[in-house]
Amino acid sequence: xxxxxxxxxxxxxxxxxxxxxxxxxxxxxxxxxxxxxxxxxxxxxxxxxxxxxxxxxxxxxxxxxxxxxxxxxxxxxxxxxxxxxxxxxxxxxxxxxxxxxxxxxxxxxxxxxxxxxxxxxxxxxxxxxxxxxxxxxxxxxxxxxxxxxxxxxxxxxxxxxxxxxxxxxxxxxxxxxxxxxxxxxxxxxxxxxxxxxxxxxxxxxxxxxxxxxxxxxxxxxxxxxxxxxxxxxxxxxxxxxxxxxxxxxxxxxxxxxxxxxxxxxxxxxxxxxxxxxxxxxxxxxxxxxxxxxx
Length: 294
Hints:
3 domains, 5-stranded mixed beta sheet, 12 helices, alpha/beta
């Protein structure tokens, strides 16, 4: 595009008009007042009319100068904004939906490593176990725990579940045992999670015990509530080891049995097969893969 009028001269005029001062315009533009005056005069010569009234130590816009300033002010502001955005590194964001327990206890504690490696990428986490449409929520991917295959999604397996039975140490001291058997547990209070109501029964069946009607269970809505229940009550918990690593490390919970993982439970990163993933998400994907393998 060819401009008959110099954009530099127009910008200098607009700055002088905004302050009605060549001195302040010069300070803003980091030039001398004489350079401002010279550029304004060149513009006036090109236009064929006067833009400023030169008074003693000050200038005032003429009617024609005011009209031109009003026409230029908004377009020049938009031009400056566009230039600033062009010079700024594009903002990159990865939007992930993650099961709340794994968001707070597994993913978030590991994110400082990602931020240190990729400071220009922002991670936005939606903590929910609900089924969500990636397109509806503008999500890049999902992190989900379960035993299912997701045929409509690409899948990266992050972790295989390591099921454990745990309780607080005080309960073991009360029972005067260090490890427990299925025969003992069938008569003890257990905490169960509504989303996985059959896990205790399945474990007892694997041990050759039909305990469907004899179990003393406290049912809670989610795994976070189950962990809290075990921390403050005499209950046994059957859960993946990963979310309770902190409690096992500080001794507030102890493992009393380690069942075999007969179901393909685990944690997976999922993303759509219907659209091309963004570069920032691929960076997050590769980091997760290296982190889990390393």
